[in-house]
Specification:
- The chain has 221 residues and is α+β, with helices and mostly antiparallel strands.
- Helices cover 23% and strands 35% of the residues.
- It contains 4 helices and 13 strands.
Length: 221
């Protein structure tokens, strides 16, 4: 019936898993990151904040690094097993969505759905206010998948939506980011005797309005 109901408790599970043993490409908390923005192919990582310190490693142009400190024009960064300092002018900051932030967006969206009485018609303009974390470009598709379409708008019904989120978000769920960290994917392979086995993915993207849910898709084998 409502696309987000099952995913809420599931995201809570994966959030707990992330805190206890997150993969390298997933942050349990919101971490400032940046990419190496230099004309050279690599950037020196030094033991301290200054050129006088020993080079302890190198990071490639375009590499994504964690920014964990700042000192006199130098960022303290973490990249793989390297922790050291690089000139801040060679790092372009990027904003990364954490799993906890994704959970908060989904929770607020689900809360808004739960407040809609059965049979109430929701217009497009009302939906924009009710679901601020659903991207404008995806809103109509989201409404068509989660509600019954009526001539005047959309209504809730006592039946499953055409598109139904089935992610359990356990150890089988993949949480990944695009190379520029502007898109986050929650995906999982679903074993479903009724609809057939398939993979399902929730996409969250960084838009001009901030991070938004931009797609919920299924792919059948």
């Amino acid at each position: 019936m409502r696309a987000f109901i099952r995913v809420l408790s599931s995201i809570f599970i994966i959030t707990s898993l992330l805190f206890s043993g997150a993969p390298d490409n997933i942050s349990a908390a919101h971490v400032q990151q940046g990419y190496v923005n230099t004309k050279n192919t690599t950037l020196n990582v030094r033991a301290g904040a200054g050129n006088k310190y020993k080079v302890i490693g190198k990071v490639s142009k375009g590499a994504i690094v964690d920014i964990i400190g700042f000192q006199k024009g130098w960022y303290k960064i973490r990249y793989g097993n390297i922790t050291g300092y690089v000139m801040s002018s060679y790092i372009a900051k990027i904003d990364v969505l954490s799993p906890q932030q994704a959970f908060d967006m989904v929770r607020q969206t689900d809360d808004a759905i739960n407040k809609i009485p059965f049979g109430k018609i929701v217009t497009y303009s009302e939906a924009q206010k009710l679901f601020p974390y659903v991207a404008t470009s995806y809103l109509t598709k989201f409404l068509n998948a989660s509600f019954d379409k009526q001539p005047e708008g959309w209504t809730l019904c006592a039946c499953d939506a055409v598109l139904f989120i089935q992610l359990s978000l356990d150890a089988n769920t993949k949480v990944t980011y695009s190379s520029n960290k502007n898109t986050m994917y929650l995906s999982e392979y679903i074993y479903d005797e009724l609809k057939g086995n398939h993979s399902q993915t929730i996409t969250l993207s960084k838009t001009t309005s901030g991070w938004r849910i931009t797609n919920i898709s299924e792919k059948y084998q």
